[in-house]
């Protein structure tokens, strides 16, 4: 059963300006593994984290660092959750988190669907 959905879109040029103007955003928003990625990939991951928060309904107590986005050998994205982010998912009875991301034409977009038992 679908427990929540979330979508977010990020303007790539605006995102790049923000991270150049405020370098502290990168370590605050992204895991150590994510930080070396190109800006368009970071923007997509930011959108993914925002979409997850929307799907969950709120982000009380959750840190950006606890919502890592990883990819499998085929490039398919997934969340690596821990700490309060994992606790929030567990508390809501979530059994699956589905994520898709894209970036093109100056924007990055992510869509999240969370599923759980009825």
Radius of gyration computed on alpha carbons:
14 Å
Q: Largest sheet, described in full?
A: 3 strands, antiparallel
Q: Portion of residues in helices?
A: 25-40%
CATH hierarchy class name = Alpha Beta
> What is the domain tally?
1
Give me the CATH superfamily: 4'-phosphopantetheinyl transferase domain
CATH topology group = Ribosomal Protein L22, Chain A
**Number of DSSP strand runs:** 5
CATH architecture: Alpha-Beta Complex
| Oligomerization status of the protein chains | single chain
Give the strand order of the largest sheet, numbering strands 1, 2, ... along the chain.
1-5-4
How are helices and strands ordered from N to C?
EHHHEEHEE
Keywords: Cytoplasm, Fatty acid biosynthesis, Fatty acid metabolism, Lipid biosynthesis, Lipid metabolism, Magnesium, Metal-binding, Transferase
Family: Belongs to the P-Pant transferase superfamily. AcpS family.
Function: Transfers the 4'-phosphopantetheine moiety from coenzyme A to a Ser of acyl-carrier-protein.
Subcellular location: Cytoplasm
